[in-house]
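Q: I have two molecules that I believe assemble together. Could you output structure tokens for the complex as a whole instead of separate predictions?
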Amino acid sequence: MRTHYCGLVDEALIGQTVTLCGWTDVARNLGGVCFIDLRDHEGIVQVTVDPSNAEVFKVAASLGYEDVLQVVGVVRAREAVNAKIRTGKVEVIATRIEILNKAAPLPFHAHENPGEDIRLKYRYLDLRTPEMQRKQRTRIRLVQALRRWLDARGFQDIETPILTKATPEGARDFLVPARMHPGEFYALPQSPQLFKQILMVAGFDRYYQIARCFRDEALRADRQLEFTQLDMEFAFVRERDVQDTVEGMIRDVFREVMDVELDAQFPRMTWAEAMRRYGSDKPDLRIALELVDVAELVKSSEFAVFAAAAADPDGRVAALRIPGGASLSRKQIDEYAAHAAKHGAKGLAYVKIDEAGEISSPIRKFFAEDAFAALLKHVGAGNGDIVFFGAGAYNKVSDFMGALRLKAGKDFGLVQDGWKPLWVTDFPMFEWDDEAQRYVALHHPFTAPAVDDIADLRANAKTAVSRGYDMVLNGNEIGGGSIRIHRPEMQSAVFELLGIGAEEAEAKFGFLLDALKFGAPPHGGIAFGIDRIAALMAGTESIRDVIPFPKTTTAQCLMTGAPSPIPDEQLAEVHVMVRPKVS
Amino acid sequence: MRTHYCGLVDEALIGQTVTLCGWTDVARNLGGVCFIDLRDHEGIVQVTVDPSNAEVFKVAASLGYEDVLQVVGVVRAREAVNAKIRTGKVEVIATRIEILNKAAPLPFHAHENPGEDIRLKYRYLDLRTPEMQRKQRTRIRLVQALRRWLDARGFQDIETPILTKATPEGARDFLVPARMHPGEFYALPQSPQLFKQILMVAGFDRYYQIARCFRDEALRADRQLEFTQLDMEFAFVRERDVQDTVEGMIRDVFREVMDVELDAQFPRMTWAEAMRRYGSDKPDLRIALELVDVAELVKSSEFAVFAAAAADPDGRVAALRIPGGASLSRKQIDEYAAHAAKHGAKGLAYVKIDEAGEISSPIRKFFAEDAFAALLKHVGAGNGDIVFFGAGAYNKVSDFMGALRLKAGKDFGLVQDGWKPLWVTDFPMFEWDDEAQRYVALHHPFTAPAVDDIADLRANAKTAVSRGYDMVLNGNEIGGGSIRIHRPEMQSAVFELLGIGAEEAEAKFGFLLDALKFGAPPHGGIAFGIDRIAALMAGTESIRDVIPFPKTTTAQCLMTGAPSPIPDEQLAEVHVMVRPKVS
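A: Yes, here they are, computed for all two components at once.
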């Protein structure tokens, strides 16, 4: 239907007749001559219609936004060059215009900056904008670059089922009633975790899959019901085999897609160090601020909150110095306190030192003068700074002080440009869940502990470290993985420590325990969040921008209207009914 | 953990120390020397353990099938070369063996030829066999070759949702209760059909996706609940643009994966011709047999069944000559009649001419001698042949005579080796559904009719031809596609002809009708069945062999035990309950 793409018409074609297809980006009648900006996926070219060609002119004069056209014309050098577009040196003098499809008046124009709901309802119109095309293309190029890289290195792209068994990995499963098995259900996979481990047992060596995963969780701005991960697994490996390989992959892919050179070696940091210095297991290293432990300097203070936390072996007293932070008003300081509270703080102490060296601080009175001076010296506080202090349980203090660090980084323009990747390693094996009064797995229950000895693990569960690792980029966990348990006895022991009894383990994970029995190789892997990496590359905060057809935070597709009611007869076929409302 | 792969140890490594990891394929103690066949995904190498190395020997002598090992040893030229394996000229003299994971006694050995249920339950053991590895690799290579081909030509790999709206395309939807919307459901997509059309409206130009599709239908040997298709769509195209492109793709991919050269131009055949000559819309051209129409020659016969069908404008009387078919016994002929009956025949007439020219036929008596001779001459029947005759409604006769043709082809060894692709085109737009008393779409309701004029389509719905096309290979429909409707009025008219009222159309497909209104380009596409093509390439009848984790014909995963009962509390969270059994 066409000889060339609109956006690729250039001077080499001058004098030639071309046939183009595309959308009417805009059509104007200027001084008796019609100009049509004809657009396709490659770009825009100007089509010019002279009134001497009465029939064609009549068509051109009738055009509205987004009418779909086929245009035949001759390429000519343009008098008024438009340097803004690639085809700006030429125009096409139309000899024939056919309207392939007339467009109704549009519900909105992109420049009107409609709300996201309208954009999602008419997703096909939103996706036509150059900005959305650019974002989608970034994702397409990312996935293509990853596949090419993996294929060239012998990774095998293997499919795992979408209709599978409900085997909770922490999040809530999506359920699918089984028509052929009344009262039974399939579940959508939260990840291909178990299948990829099974593939290693089955003798595959290096597996990957760009896999759709499903978690029925509350949606936040950066979560979707379904999301996409690059899922990988390797047989006969230790941590560094996996890490070095995928670090190389990420570096190569950023070079290819973004023309960016990441660190030749990503920094490595234990979980403990990351929590201590940055109050986060996914520190944003673009922000130079660090937390400073001050327990030793405050343990004798009269401020009970500090003294108690400093004396508690599981406690922490940490300080965050913000250079220039003395400019914060009382109201702004309250905002910081509120932000800390949102992240679990019971209170937030501060010391503000104005440019003249004048100190204002609600906690100064609890300190002897020299102790206070020593404290300020220890945290490096000087004129113009503010220092926030948090005290309490170690992880809680780390969390909210880490959150303050991020807020301060943004508020004070302390986020450097560029890309700061790192590895976080040596995660705790277990986390104590106060509510459930039992351990939960920090990664997932298939993660190997650093110790090989089961008795040792049992005896030191609280402090046990796992063989898990995360790749972090600019404060985002973009990849998470681990060496897996490959011995059935260890897997059973870990289930037991997690409060999963032998019977429950057999019912839920019996096939995995079986598989580990019949010759499972040592193996490990990782999964990368494609949506998040694409969003980072595309420079957008929302992963919705890099998902062609995303759902809202209320879990709806505004374009198709999913989810929707289903006739009861159809539900009867799959042996379920809508539950009567309990009033 | 290793320096080399087992299957790649070769003479270049003689004298070197290598570290290998793999499975104990077999371990034998022969005359005081231990030989271990160590296997990984690349193949097998012989590890030899001399008793002089007492410690290592003790480990070696203890080994059982499938124990997972790490072996350090020195590569040496082998005295007794084993020409059957790639590494047969060398062996590895073990200096250290570590058992990485001991394997329990296996539930079966591959050579015992266990039933498919056992193989599916222990899928990880079954997948370890060289035969299953070969089949899986064929699939992996197919998908990789397709992607590489498409990426090189500017096709964009774009994801479409798995949780979407119930929009029946003919088959039954899988439903997923929506937690955040009590009483509402998502559906799993039967194909990305509507989304890919929307992508064309959104300005993408050439889309592809290796997409998972879901149909809750009765499972046959070659069907699965979920299956994989290469889904493609093109903007601004006509039939030949799509067909020529993907024909080239299939040719290139067969060359790359199978080292096979397909026809430089695939034969093309209308649906009418395919039905007439082969009694099938997916003729297996490897079988040279053809149907012959004989209505003209039998319309005056006294055999009422023939005469009536010959006189009916919607009837058909067809003959199938099977060279050498006179060898069929009475019992075998009955089997052919039963096969025809299974495919809709009410009866099956035949004429058998033995080697001596003796004729036996239950219908001879209905014909005058010269008419009978003319009939035999017309169908080319000679000594040693049998000719089957079918009479009745055109499509029914075509169906069962086509089925006989396939059976005869197999029974008489008339299926040629090799690959016979073709295009089938010009399908009927609609099929009359006797039960529902209305038209149904032969492809799907978004397929464009060959006529552009709505009045014309309405007036001639019965004989209307669509712009659909199928790619057929060796009797399998491996790809099906069409030019789509891009004008909203035509889409509404087709919905109407299919008995989908304006209200229903709006509720189910309103977003598509909307999208067509706001500047939809002419577009078309195709979808290829990856499972089927992989099975054909791998030389297996069952697509289960090329799916890593397939379900049984009873829709179960025997390995994980899906589907399974779900606690009622969990169902309550998604607002459904299991329907009480109606007794």
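A: One point stands out. The domain at 287-415 of chain A is CATH 3.30.1360.30 (Gyrase A; domain 2).
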